[in-house]
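Recap from last week: sequence in, structure out.
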Amino acid sequence: MSASIRLQAGWAHAWAMLQLAKPRVVALIVFCAVIGMLLSQPALPALRLLLPATLGIALMAGAAAMLNCLLERALDARMLRTAWRATARGSAGRGETLLLALLLGGGGMLLLWGWVNALTAWLTLATLLAYALVYTLLLKPYTPQNIVIGGISGAMPPLLGWTAMTGQVSPHALLLLLIIYTWTPPHFWALALYRRADYARAGLPMLPLTHGQGFTTLSILLYTLLLTAVTLLPVALGVAGWLYLLAALALDGRFLFLAVQLHRQYADALARRTFSWSIWYLTWLFAAMLSDHYCLLPVS
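Predicted structure tokens:
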């Protein structure tokens, strides 16, 4: 094999290993964590704290994703959505995947412990273990409420960002966590609806398979109504103003419209659109909250 072919193969393998860290998911996690960092301060936080906190959380999120891929390699191989992963194909060895996950997690822990604070380091480690072990091994394979119970780990990023800057957990940080926690079920169940054949092949007890399509779409609608109420709490509690309120009402209105349509006349294409919208919804909601924070427009 020529040097150029070996180099190309090496780059391809490195890229495949990077994908095991789920970079798009990590990007959303980092975005939510940075929002928590910025909201915790009246002005921009110091880069000497923001940069190691952001990198540390990103590294540990990537480590959690790699451990998830490693533990679910047999399930991933049976699902069209995940069969391309290197762990599912067998092109990534268990040893190298575990070693890389430990290096990422260890590096992230070192950054958070040494340059941020111990509280954030321990909370991030607990989040990693809750996702990679508790959710992956105990919840996802055994209960259709897996995403409800396990959603707490996915809701942690803004709280982690907040504690990274302040060294403490505040009610405002818990409110950010509550928003993501309530958002997670309708977001994930929309995916589970149009991917239900994949989950059936994997033998996972996802809500559309155990309780049916109608029950799932009704659950999405009810959780979206609950999410609407939760996203208005920052205004009710006086920690957000008119800019955020207007954005939240518009975003919630669109989400509710999709949820109602999904329940009244289900289609896979609509479920896919709802899932895609839910990602933009969370991004724009937090962006609006951040804009409101710096515009200082309190509700009188």
